[in-house]
Predict the structure.
Amino acid sequence: MDTSAIRQNLIDKIKTSLPDNVVMDMARLVEINEDEDLTVVFTDEQQARINRSLRDYKEGRYVSGEVAENDIQEWLKD
């Protein structure tokens, strides 16, 4: 398939079947809207994970980047 056909297939798919959040992600990737602020829309599951992470951070349940890097280096040795 040549690039012209691929391009048209992508355009058709964007117009007809991709969810808004995927279209927005694609726009960010290709920097179509450089002058516009894009709004990120999270799924309910993603938002729940973000909220849990923020709660963990506020309650001190995290490790520093240095500790994480040391842990990773130890795991890689095994």
